[in-house]
Design a protein that fits this description.
Elements lengths: L4 E4 L4 E8 L4 H8 L9 E11 L1 H16 L4 E4 L3 H9 L9
Parallel strand pairs: 2-3, 3-4
Antiparallel strand pairs: 1-2
Helix pairs in contact: 1-2
Protein name: STAS domain-containing protein
Pfam families: STAS_2 (PF13466)
Amino acid sequence: MSDNGMAVRPDGTVELSGALTFETVPRFFVQSGSWINGAGAITVNLKSVTRVDSAGVALLLEWRERTRAAGRELTFTDLPEQLRHMIRVSGLDAAFAL
């Protein structure tokens, strides 16, 4: 996986790396078209995300809504502390099960 990337594993795990920011979110959004409407549960692993801004949080919420609409379960794992902080100050703890 590159510095800014998305790797989709056969087991339904999606691994993100690098920045999840205004500059990178459009590319991540386009790439999600390949897995968002499939079947089965999805786990998005964020352990290799190095930086997040509000656009990144918005993308994660969008993925949550799209997978819910498709009848799929979505779990976020290994959230970096910066992302956890942004979620808390935004009052989104319940949306991310924090």
